[in-house]
Recover the amino acids of this structure.
């Protein structure tokens, strides 16, 4: 089983819980704490993490990613929170994909706000309502390298983008900070839209392609490290397993956590 956690980054490409063109990839929306552990208990052999939840609930726990890896599950990350988690868990075997993850690993990006986006609910296909900073930066850089703006203008636009709270960030907001004249604001936005780069989407599509190429079976557990399982983790895992059993109505075998 292949499970992909994705929302606004690939909005429009998920139909009835399946990724367009890849019916073997089960899409479950942005991941919250416990969702990766649930996927392991459900039998996932490949997990792709792109989007994660924040603010209203806890984000996916590093421990559940390590637990998935310790059970031979391939875990890939890209595009958004997945890129950050992949950079943090690369030493244990999580596979980071794409430019955004590479930048986190090089220390060029540090904050989850760099990839965060405001978006609509699942009923609206997680429609993006703001623009991620990494996309704004990539768009401005393309405008600079293609001669649409000069270096000084690029630097000023970057300062403007950095000063905007992520929930309010988009090309129009950058233009409003950058230009006092309405006509020049409209011209800047039009040029930015023509040169827009969606780096999050590009990286996430690369992850989907990699998932599609992987076999739907678990590998042998890693031999170079062993996961510590403190009581807090075991209690958390027990709760998740019991929840999965309850969700199934008690039918069939009890959902026990696989051994690490």
């Amino acid at each position: 089983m292949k499970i992909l956690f994705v929302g606004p980054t690939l909005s429009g490409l998920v139909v009835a819980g399946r990724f367009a063109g890849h019916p073997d990839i089960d899409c479950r929306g942005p991941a919250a704490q416990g969702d990766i552990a649930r996927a392991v208990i459900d039998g996932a052999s490949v997990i792709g993490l792109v989007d994660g939840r924040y603010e209203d609930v806890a984000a996916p726990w590093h421990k559940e990613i390590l637990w998935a890896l310790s059970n031979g599950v391939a875990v890939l990350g890209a595009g958004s929170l997945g890129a950050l988690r992949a950079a943090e868990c690369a030493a244990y075997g999580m596979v980071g994909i794409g430019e955004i993850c590479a930048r986190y690993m090089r220390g060029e990006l540090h904050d989850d706000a760099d990839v965060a986006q405001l978006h609509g609910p699942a009923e609206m296909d997680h429609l993006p309502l703001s623009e991620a900073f990494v996309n704004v930066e990539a768009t401005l850089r393309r405008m600079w390298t293609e001669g649409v703006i000069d270096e000084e203008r690029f630097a000023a636009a970057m300062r403007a983008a950095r000063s905007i709270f992520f929930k309010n960030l988009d090309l129009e907001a950058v233009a409003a900070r950058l230009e006092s004249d309405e006509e020049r604001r409209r011209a800047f936005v039009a040029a930015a839209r023509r040169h827009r780069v969606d780096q999050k989407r590009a990286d996430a599509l690369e992850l989907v392609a990699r998932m599609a190429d992987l076999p739907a079976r678990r590998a042998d557990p890693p031999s170079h490290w062993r996961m510590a399982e403190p009581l807090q983790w075991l209690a958390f895992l027990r709760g998740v397993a019991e929840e999965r059993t309850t969700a199934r109505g008690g039918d069939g075998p009890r959902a026990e956590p696989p051994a690490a």
